[in-house]
């Protein structure tokens, strides 16, 4: 009995220690990207109107929930099935009544999992089930209020990235256990015979796999049909040579550079505050021409996608956007930006020509210290190399422009 009373204290100590270690590891992110820089992020309670309905939750999580409840019911509900079923129904009704439908499936998993673990009727897979259920319930209660996406979009994406691996690993163990569970003396309370139970388990698992497996059967052909009908591929960069052949060679050339040299390319954002002309309307995010070289090589660019507003704050991001726009339309501004941001390469492609129109892009090769790289250029893309020590004074170029 004393040992049982000591378990909660030991568990609390382990959780507190793990939490403190996690805060220590995440401190640079919490203090910098989240807490400073004008990012305007805060933890907020999710309004009732933004919470998922029970139907939506079951549509997304139903297969996992059914799998885990079947396994947990076998662990905690066989001896007294009616009270367990009654408690589950009561929890579901209460969850809907208080405006928190997620409490029905996820709360039930948490309670059943805790009982199974507390009474030594489950293994480590149940720890994964409980962990995933807790995370899934968490995003129905709080979210990170930020500018990088509408509402709790990023909170859901980033949190569920942890839920899926936890549940995927647990589901395999639970489904295997349903198929090979040995007969128990108390099984007669639910099944006329062990054979009936085995058949029911097999039918349940078969239906579950058949219904969820259809997603892969339909999703993969939909992803490749029409694009690679003859030679389907999972190579995420194969499309570049197929649909953007003029940009493939410049991207591969930049990707082969050593280190992380900075790249100047058009920012992927629409109109920014204070824009004086139509430039800034393209390229937009989620399009091919939105920083393709930086996206596919990992080279840092001076101003990337508009999402940086959520990470750096609007002042820092739009300040760089203005600098980049000025660099493509003024030789003097270009020299200042190339020096300030230690730019080693300049990209001029279809997006830059569309964005700056008649006002640019300037001829970067007309600036001392900037040379066109023939091996990396194509009819639609020009790549320039910058030698900072040879750049002229910006003041001289400004006098020439005036």
Describe this entry's structure for a reader:
- Helix 6 (153-180) packs across helix 7 (194-224).
- The chain is built from 15 helices and six strands.
- It has helices at residues 2-34, 54-76, 81-97, 103-118, 124-138, 153-180, 194-224, 238-243, 245-255, 292-297, 308-312, 314-329, 331-340, 350-356, 394-401, and strands at residues 42-45, 142-145, 262-264, 343-348, 370-372, 382-386.
- Helices cover 58% and strands 6% of the residues.
- Strands 3-4-6-5 form a four-stranded mixed beta sheet. Strands 1-2 form a two-stranded antiparallel ribbon.
- It folds into two domains: 35-224, no CATH class; 240-401, no CATH class.
Summed up, the helix count is 15
The whole-angstrom Rg is: 29 Å
Main beta sheet strand tally, sense and closure:
4 strands, mixed
Terminal-residue CA separation: 88 Å
The domain count comes to: 2
- Percent in helix: 55-70%
Strand order of the largest sheet: 3-4-6-5
How many beta-strand elements? 6
- What overall form do the CA principal axes indicate? elongated
In percent terms, what proportion of residues is strand?
5-15%
**Low-confidence parts:** 186-192
Give the class from helix and strand content and strand pairing. alpha+beta
SSE run: HEHHHHEHHHHEHHHHEHEEH
Mean pLDDT across the residues is 82
């Amino acid at each position: 009995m004393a040992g049982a009373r000591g378990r909660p204290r030991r568990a609390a100590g382990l959780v507190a220690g793990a939490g403190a270690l996690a805060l220590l590891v995440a401190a640079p992110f919490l203090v910098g990207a989240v807490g400073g820089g004008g990012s305007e992020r805060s933890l907020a309670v999710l309004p009732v109107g933004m919470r998922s309905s029970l139907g939506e939750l079951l549509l997304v999580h139903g297969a996992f929930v059914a799998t885990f409840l079947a396994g947990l019911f076998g662990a905690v509900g066989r001896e007294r099935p009616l009270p367990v079923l009654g408690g589950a129904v009561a929890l579901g009704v209460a969850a809907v009544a208080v405006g928190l439908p997620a409490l029905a499936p996820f709360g039930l998993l948490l309670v059943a999992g805790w009982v199974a673990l507390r009474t030594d009727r489950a293994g480590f897979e149940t720890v994964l089930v409980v962990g995933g259920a807790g995370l899934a319930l968490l995003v129905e209660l709080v979210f990170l209020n930020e500018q990088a996406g509408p509402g709790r979009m990023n909170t859901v994406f980033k949190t569920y990235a942890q839920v899926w691996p936890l549940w995927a690993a647990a589901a395999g163990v639970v489904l295997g256990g349903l198929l090979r569970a040995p007969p128990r003396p108390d099984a007669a309370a639910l099944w006329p015979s062990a054979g009936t139970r085995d058949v029911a388990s097999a039918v349940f698992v078969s239906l579950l796999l058949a219904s969820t497996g259809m997603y892969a059967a339909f999703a993969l052909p939909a992803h490749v049909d029409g694009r690679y009908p003859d030679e389907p591929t999972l190579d995420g960069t194969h499309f570049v040579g197929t649909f953007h052949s003029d940009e493939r060679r410049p991207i591969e050339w930049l990707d082969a550079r050593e280190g992380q040299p900075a790249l100047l390319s058009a920012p992927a954002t629409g109109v920014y505050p204070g824009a004086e002309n139509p430039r800034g309307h393209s390229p937009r995010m989620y399009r091919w021409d939105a920083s393709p070289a930086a996206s596919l090589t990992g080279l840092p660019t001076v101003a990337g996608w508009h999402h940086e507003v959520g990470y750096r704050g609007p002042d820092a991001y739009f300040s760089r956007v203005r600098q980049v726009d000025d660099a493509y339309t003024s030789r003097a501004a270009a020299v200042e930006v190339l020096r300030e941001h230690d730019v080693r390469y300049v990209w001029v492609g279809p997006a830059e020509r569309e964005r700056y129109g008649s006002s640019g892009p300037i001829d970067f090769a007309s600036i001392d210290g900037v040379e066109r790289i023939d091996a990396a250029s194509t009819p639609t893309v020009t790549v320039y190399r910058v030698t900072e020590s040879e750049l002229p004074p910006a003041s001289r170029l400004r006098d020439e422009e005036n």
